[in-house]
Amino acid sequence: FIKHLSAAVNRKILTVSLFTKSRQYVTGNIAKDLRMDVKQLSARKARIDTEDSSKRYCDVNLNTGDLIVAETIDREELCGSRMSCILNYELVLENPLEVHRIILQIQDINDNAPRFPNERIHLEITESAVKGQKFRLDEAHDTDIGQNSINSYSLEKNKHFVLNVHDTADGGKYAELVLEKELDREQQKEIDMILTATDGGSPQRSGTAVIHITVLDANDNVPVFSESVYKVTLAENTPSGTEIIRVSATDADEGPNGEVTYEFSRMSEKTAKLFSIDKTTGQIVVAGEIDYEKDKKYEMGIQAKDASGLASTAKIILDVTDVNDNSPRIILKSLNKPLPENSEPGTEVGIINAQDKDSGENRQIRCSVQQNVPFKLNPSVKNYFSLVTTKALDREKESDYNITITATDGGSPPLSTSLTINLLISDVNDNPPVFEQQSYSAYISENNKPGTSVCSVSANDPDWRQNGTVLYSLVPSEVNGVQVSSFLSINGDTGVIHAVRSFDYEQFRNFTVKAVARDNGSPPLSSNVTVKVFITDENDNSPQILYPVPDGKSLMTEMVPKATLSGSLVSKVIAVDADSGQNAWLSYQIVKSTDPGLFSIGLHSGEIKTQRDISESDNMKQNLVISVKDNGQPSLSTTCAVNLLISDNLSEVPELKDMTYEDSNSKLTSYLIIALVSVSTFFLTFIILIVAVKFCHRRKPRLLFDGAVAVPSTNLPPNYAEVDGAGTLRSSYNYDTYLTTGSRTSDFKFITDTSGEGFSYPTLVNEFI
Ligand SMILES: *[C@@H]1O[C@H](CO)[C@@H](O)[C@H](O)[C@H]1NC(C)=O
Ligand SMILES: *[C@@H]1O[C@H](CO)[C@@H](O)[C@H](O)[C@H]1NC(C)=O
Ligand SMILES: *[C@@H]1O[C@H](CO)[C@@H](O)[C@H](O)[C@H]1NC(C)=O
């Protein structure tokens, strides 16, 4: 029976399904299974007992015999994950006691959805993860079992991942993400995907979780420069510290991987000194002297690096632009030095080259010479210039030139340079010596000592050195038939003319020589000048008494009529002096007289006149001693005696014989004296006649005797000659007067007998002619 029941109950159990969860659910009919009348059930107090005191989920409907679910049954609660879930009950019947075993097998229904332990699954995956890398995901759980537990996983469609599902050892399933396409943080930093787990129940249930993937950075980006080639222009001379450019490179990585530092990579050592780069900012500044003339272009490599050393490079091409910072340079290539003064205009003096290190306009050079020099620059090929003269030169006017050449470039502002060339002009013997005077006059007093300097001539020659060295000489000639060299000599160097011998004014008074000044050039140039030598007089001759014949040797005695009135001319002393001028300017004085006060003598005329009327008491014989003195310094003088006889008749004179010439030791002399006296008397008479005639004309009764006396000129110096014209002083020193003067008409001319006999006859000139 129990066996039967058991079988029966077993059957019934199998009909219990998921739906037993609901109360009053009929799972079987016990009455039918036990083939018992329903009424008997209640009669026999059928009831269900549990073996242990656990909860009773079933009950028997006594009215129908149905086995019903008394309490909601949850398989998951009762059995968890156990595959078989059996509840054991006993059906107890009384009267008779019968116990039947009821095995209630609980079957699962899909009443639970799969569940993930976390609704969000956080994953951190580096972007460097390679394809095929797997990431295990949390397993989802479903409390149902069997078919109703996790059956599969699915992943939201995405670009990077696919899903692999694996069984676990305990029959579960888990999924793993498989990277199918590499990640790139720089493109997508985070990825969200929905993972769905589904069970195998019907209807199917599912649970989801969000997979949140954070893509971790990997240093997979190199810094990138904004340009691969930076082109910069920079003016030369840019001061140190000036920013040229700021380069920048960006690195898509983050953190240290994205921190960029800059440095120069590839550059010459020379360039490295000129520029510096800021490691962090990429600012490139000038650090040295930029000189266009040294380098026109620089190339630098720059490198940007991130923290872990990923680097990239770029290039900077820097063009230096010219600045007009170089003055032109003037180079004297050649100079013909010194330049002869006779160079033709247009003669090339030198060659000049001008240079400028700058370029373009800045090296266009203009060259010029200052205005006031006779030079100019002729442009030639390629900044070469020839310096030529523009006009004739004269060393004597300008012996050197400072030629200033100025070169100016075409920059803005322009720069210029000057070069001063000192050009010496060399001498050519083109100037003859020139005497300082057109003619020279020299005065030398007679009786000079030989060797006395007469005068000095001087000539100038402006030429240089020997071309201007003057040598003096005298032109050979003759003076009065004598070589001039026996009169004068000249110092060839100084031009001082010396007398070679002593001169005598009375012999000749002047002569002319020619002096030559010659320079030492080759050929020499010369000029000449006339030197007139005047010999000046010295008082070396004392006066000579012509009348009365001196030394008392004269037989002559002047007759003075007794009736002579005061002021009458009674006689005249005639004296000459071979000297001239003051030295021949004679003055007369009575130094001794018989009767002082009776006669006076004209100081310069030599005329002896009565001072008072002659009276009877006067001594008949009157003697006068007269001194004749010239005006020289010191003066020379001569004396003579004049005998006067106051008488009307020669016969009255008793001592006449006494007065005759006693010492006639020579017959010839006596005859000569007689002849002379006769002639003199004749002339005197003649003159008295003329004077009388003149006197009548002029009605000057007091003058008995006014006039010129002609006297024999015995013992005159041989060259006592060359007198001309009326007795005026012709020049301060050159007197031609020679006779006593003071009387208006006392002009005489002696015709000299040059025969040498020393004997001549005076000729009355003026009045006769
Ligand atoms: C030229 O210059 C020199 C030196 O400065 C100077 O001695 C000379 O007198 C100058 N010459 C002229 C002609 O200016
Ligand atoms: C003098 O002049 C000549 C040309 O007449 C010249 O050759 C010479 O060099 C000059 N002498 C001096 C010292 O200047
Ligand atoms: C003196 O100079 C003149 C012209 O200056 C010349 O004709 C004459 O020949 C010269 N005489 C001598 C002796 O040199």
Automatic annotation (TrEMBL):
One of the protein's GO biological processes: homophilic cell adhesion via plasma membrane adhesion molecules
SUPFAM superfamilies tied to this protein: Cadherin-like
Domain (Cadherin): residue spans on this chain: 47-116, 117-225, 226-330, 339-435, 436-545, 560-656
- Provide the function of this protein: Potential calcium-dependent cell-adhesion protein. May be involved in the establishment and maintenance of specific neuronal connections in the brain.
Q: Write out the transmembrane intervals.
A: 671-693
Q: Native species of this protein?
A: Sinocyclocheilus grahami (Dianchi golden-line fish)
Query: PROSITE patterns, from UniProt?
Result: CADHERIN_1, CADHERIN_2
- Protein name in UniProt: Protocadherin 1 gamma 2
List GO terms (cellular component aspect): plasma membrane
The organism's taxonomy opens as: Eukaryota, Metazoa, Chordata, Craniata, Vertebrata
Compartments in which it is found: Cell membrane
- Highest taxon, organism lineage: Eukaryota
Membrane topology note:
Single-pass type I membrane protein
Q: What GO annotations for molecular function exist for this entry?
A: calcium ion binding
Keywords linked to the UniProt accession: Calcium, Cell adhesion, Cell membrane, Glycoprotein, Membrane, Repeat, Signal, Transmembrane, Transmembrane helix
